[in-house]
Please model this.
Amino acid sequence: MSLMMDRIDALRKEFKSAIAQATLVRDVEAIRLKFTGRKGSVPELMKELKDCSIDEKREFGPKLNDFRQEIEAAIATRAKELVDGAEKAKASAIENFDVSARVPSSRKKGTTHPYSQIVERVENTFLSMGYSIFDGPEIEDDYHNFGALNIPENHPARDMHDTLWLNRRSHLLRTHTSTIQIHAMESRKLPIAGIAPGRTFRHEAVDASHDVMFWQCEGLFIDKGITMSHLFGTAKAFLSSFFDTDDIDIRIRPGYFPFVEPGVEIDMRCVFCKDGCSVCKKSKWVEVFPGGMVHPNVLKSAGIDPEVYSGFAFGFGLSRLVMLMHGISDIRLLSSGKIPFLRQF
Ligand SMILES: [Zn+2]
Model:
């Protein structure tokens, strides 16, 4: 009998010493498992008690139960103390954070990717003009990438897009950000004014000016009474704000894109030179903005009545814009992840 009592006392002593030394919550959990876990010391003693006499059971059963409760309470208290202490330490570390501390000059700083920089600049420019930012999926179905954009099956314009089809031929990696036009028209209330910068994918032979992934930015404006002159005005306002100059001159050439009618190519007089440079290839003009009036078939496919509403759409290559602005001659560098290249921005 006294042997059982001795064992309980010894366990209590061992437990008290262990719990006093626990400095981490996981130490407390280990102690809990050791003493009251399924194969812990206390359940083992309870098992032994089953083979004892009735008198012994009467005497030690309640004692063991009390001991178990004592352990559980001590464990809960200690765990709470440790958690509270850790939180206090964390809060005081934040309080004592010295924002004016000097960063050692040897420490290298990270930079944002040139794509992120240009996307932010383009977005800010259009946001200041009252546009919203639209987004859409990179994996598209045939309908959003082609059909709804007035490029039906067997349309020759499909050949212009070297498409990366997914296993199921019904899905693909979007070949242009024009897909987002359709998503915007399907999900938003009119009038719609937004831009959508994003990644696009083509099954290209990769070289210095072609990559399988590149960035585009799509723009869309639909309301009553929208005309081509709104597009030209928008293009000029954007270029003026983006290149930070009032001296923006544009010229218009006819262009063909199935989802606009009429379609145009908007060129900008080179802002980098007066008499020709490598950016404008000595022509003094830079191609910037393909666009046009949204084709009535496209409006119809999104359930918009082309007799009531009209709109313009445009798109431009952000990859090309980044390359122009920074004088980057190889598009592959942009997705290479090469640190020496990225450190320059
Ligand atoms: Zn030039």
Summary: The pocket of zinc ion is lined by residues 270, 272-273, 276-277, 279-280, 284 (CB under 6 Å). DSSP finds eleven helices and nine strands in the chain. Residues 114-342 form a domain with the BirA Bifunctional Protein; domain 2 fold (CATH 3.30.930.10). The two ends are 80 Å apart (CA to CA).
